[in-house]
Request: fold
Amino acid sequence: MNLWHIAKGTWHDQLIKLAAGDEGIEDLETKLGPVFEDGGKTFGNVSKYYVERYGFHQDCQVIACTGDNPSTILSLPLQASDAMVSLGTSTTFLMSTPTWRPDPAYHFMNDPTTAGLYMFMLCYKNGGLAREQVRDALNGERKSKAWDKFNELALSTPPLAQTSEKGPMRMGLFFPRSEIVPNVSAGQWRYSYSPETNKLEQLDTQPDASDARIIVESQLLSLRLRAASLVSSHKVSNGTTIPPQPRRVYLVGGGSANPAIARLAGEVLGGLEGVFRLDIGGNACALGAAYKAVWACERSEGETFEELIKGRWDEKQFVRRVADGYTEGVFERYGEAVRGFDLMEKEVLRRQGEESGREEKSRGGVVMKDDEGRGAENP
Reply:
């Protein structure tokens, strides 16, 4: 309900006061009741009504439910700094982290099971649909839905379509639908970026053979940009320190079966131990919810969700390593590209803001700007 102070683990005084109105804070807090940060705590047995009407066992316990994305993150025992990328029609990026760093660009919530952990989530409308649009354009008149040509072009094009080590990097935004992050309308934008000069140049918007690689890289660069503050560096056995990145990158959803996407995920996002596919079909959400119920009902005293599931987890049955992760030199090159990608998003947002202002003026309105630069019409 957005009345909870996540960092403090209590109701938020100011928001409760705002919502309570004349009824008073105490009255509203009484109606809301206590909140258990322990996601497996039982509320008691199911009511007699459900036992008699629907045949529930009288000892059936009631525990707090959770949503589809929190359930998905529970579908495998993620360790600190592990990342899960759901590659469906939309794209969702999930991490379990002990670090609390909220930002307007993403969601930060309490972990659905364990106090002291948080759930980081990025949601994009444009995922598989955008990749399919590029695939169809590259297949041309054949009107084929096959990914062969897309994958071939994605892997044969050099990283960021650079023709030389210090040449310009190509990147773009491909949005069949209006996007959440960044908050722009539907469209396509292609740019080249020079790390040497930190300059952008807008390119032609016509389909190009490099689009197969550019769209996947750009989607992954957006994830890397926004998760940068949540990952940490790693020291390996020979004493070398590896740059900040996830320990593992797990792929789920329809796009996880694509080998080209898996390879690029490792190159852009890294992954100290590699890129893995969670092979449980399309039921990660349902599986995570079932795990939560098992933990709540069968855990021993003080046993965390992670401890119980890890003790019963058969990784060989569900997880397959599908690509390498961190590659020295390549990962650092994408680190340079992140700076350019950030500039590109801001440039597209600026241009859209200017276009919106011109449209409003042509209709006789005046555009007022709020504190974050978003337009608000004042007719």
About this structure: Residues 87 and 256 are 6 Å apart (CA to CA). Residues 367-379 have pLDDT under 50 and may be disordered.
